[in-house]
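Sat 14:20. Reprocessing the chain from the morning session after the first attempt stalled halfway. Input below, unchanged.
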Amino acid sequence: MLWPFNHFRKPRRTPLGTIEAIYGMIVTQAREPTFYRDLGVPDTVNGRFDLLLLHLWLLLRRLRTVQGVTGGATELSQALFDRFCEDMDDNLREMGVGDQTVPKRMRAFGEAFYGRVQAYDQAMEAGGEALASAICKNILNGTGFDQAQRLAAYARASEADLGRTGEAALLRAAFKFPPALPEDVTP
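Finished this time. Tokens:
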């Protein structure tokens, strides 16, 4: 039985509607056809998963820089990760994965998430073509380095746009991701 209220959990300060709005923005951007049609992301379950992770990482990376007194960014980051996990669980069950297998697959999703976060963070700090190499390996299955460079340029442009977005706008879902193929983005 599900209890409507958990007496041991702190009440959520981030409204559920905000979490759903931001997660919806991430999913919508990750489903943008341009990524699959023009940038070589495989239109498969794995390709969509990897593109979702890229966008979630970009936003969580920006939220790490928010210096709120209330801890809103930390709470929002956790809530978005929890929503991602819930979404993955729901998707597995919709695909017919059995109850015995779901925890193993969720563990694999978690490992993929943390592995990619680490790889993308290190690549972003390293500069040069490191991010394109990480994207090529993780999203494009090791092929299409030219497309990986374009995806890396998009990721850097997204990071810059999110960096220019005010903290309050981030915390209330009042921002947008840039176009998947902005005209002025070059590798």
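DSSP finds eight helices and no strands in the chain.
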